[in-house]
Amino acid sequence: MIDDDDHQIGYQALPRGVPVVTADGVQLGVVHRVQDNAREHIFDGIVVKTDKGRRFVDAPEVARITLRQVTLNIDHEQALELPEHRGMLGSVETNLKRSGRRWKRRLGG
Questions:
Q1: Does the CA dihedral 54-41-12-80 come out positive or negative?
Q2: Where are the domains of the chain?
Q3: Half-sphere exposure of 88 (CA within 13 A, CB side)
Q4: Mean pLDDT, residues 65-73 taken together
């Protein structure tokens, strides 16, 4: 549900704790953190704190950001399939896998 009185804001101004709502009006959780590429000023997505842990919402799935709520362009059923956000551990694991694949290619394996 879009409230026309609530003005859209940039992702940099989005505070923690703002409700995140799916396209069909179901509250998924609240904003835990905004992910961006600060050097290139690119919005990457939002980490949402849900009852079942933290989930990552990719930027293209975010329809609107206001001070009162974030509205997604996916429905609740699709939102339940969002990937778990593993924080720094997930980033380290991903980087190690990439590095391992590169070395494997270099060594002809």
A1: negative
A2: 11-106
A3: 0
A4: 97
Please, how many CA atoms are within 13 Å of residue 109, restricted to the half-sphere of its CB? Answer: 6
- The Cα 109–Cα 92 span in angstroms is 23
**In terms of Cα–Cα distance, which of 6, 30, 34 is closest to 17?**
30
What gap in Å lies between CA 109 and CA 78, rounded to an integer? 38
User: For every residue of 23-54, which 3-state class applies, written as one string?
Assistant: CCCCEEEEEEEEEEECCCCEEEEEEEEECCEE
Long-range contacts of 12-17 (CB under 8 A, 24+ apart): 12/36, 13/67, 14/46, 14/65, 14/70, 15/67
- Give the largest Cα separation in the chain, rounded: 60
The pTM of the full predicted model, rounded to 2 decimals, is 0.75
Asked if residue 24 lies in contact with residue 72, where contact means CB atoms within 8 angstroms, the answer is no
Residues 11-106, CATH architecture: Roll (2.30)
pLDDT value of position 38 = 81
